[in-house]
Specification:
- This protein has 301 residues and is an alpha/beta fold.
- The protein contains twelve helices and eight strands.
- The chain has helices at residues 69-77, 104-121, 132-143, 164-170, 172-193, 196-199, 203-214, 218-228, 235-241, 258-268, 282-285, 287-300; strands at 30-35, 40-45, 53-58, 80-85, 125-130, 150-154, 245-250, 271-275.
- An eight-stranded mixed β-sheet has the order 1-2-4-3-5-6-7-8, with helices on both faces.
- Strand 7, helix 10 and strand 8 form a beta-alpha-beta unit.
- Helix 1 (69-77) crosses helix 12.
- The longest helix has 22 residues, at 172-193.
- The radius of gyration is 17 Å and the shape is globular.
Amino acid sequence: MVLPGSPETSSATLAVPVDDLRQLADHDATPRTLPGRAGPLAALDTGGEGRSGTVLLVAGYTGSKEDFAPLLAPLAAHGYRVVAIDQRGQYQSPGPDDPAAYTVEELAGDLVAVAHLLREETGTPHLVGHSFGGLVARAAVLADRGAFRSLTLLGSGPARLTGPRVALLEHLGPLLDQGGVELVQATLEQLAMTDERAQAVPGPTRAFYAHRFLGNTAAGLRGMADAMTTEPDRVAELAATGIPVLVAHGEADDAWAPAEQADMARRLGARHEVVPHAIHSPAVENPRSTLAALEAFWTSL
């Protein structure tokens, strides 16, 4: 989950240099439109034969495919065909006007559809879900275990989100009622003005956050927020599938606590990696270590 105005830094010292553009990192991936069950899904596709494997990357709440930008070129150079998507209603993917279309199960259906397409093109994909995207990715595996080679839960948890980020979401509905997505974005921008850590993010990246947020549908913001704060614990169900799982998170994750994610890994019998110098967005906060964790996991299979 990435909200404009919510800092990507806290007590941890991030590995990205101060002038790193994070979501705007250079990559050679090509914009592409993929078929989802409720409409087209915007994607970045590195192409290639995928001699090392095919990877499907899914962003979290208010996030987008660009949340994986620093990983795209390195993974492609190592022989992976990588596809990162905006979920329905996010950024460049249109979505229905009904919040009920954004349940975890509905969103998971899109991932299964994309996975079947990728399997026909270059092979069954490894699935990586960040934050809320991890809950959706888990549901996709539970819906169709055979559609995926492995699952990585990146900064995601065993059940619904709790803690201080939920308090921010409680203000979402009233703001949407009063002024739509525009008012929410403006309010978050005002909060960011008073936060030194948010201001430390490079200007072009902050401008991208604002532009991206305005691309979200109001129904998607409502529906996904509800889904994220009501998701039950499905760890036992996931363990029963037998799919190889990696649980990875920043050392100072401020969404699902590191201890909570470590316990989830134990319950799953999963590989567990802690990304140093990262908080809730390891792919942009410490891409080098995140890349190493992913490749070590996939190679082990």
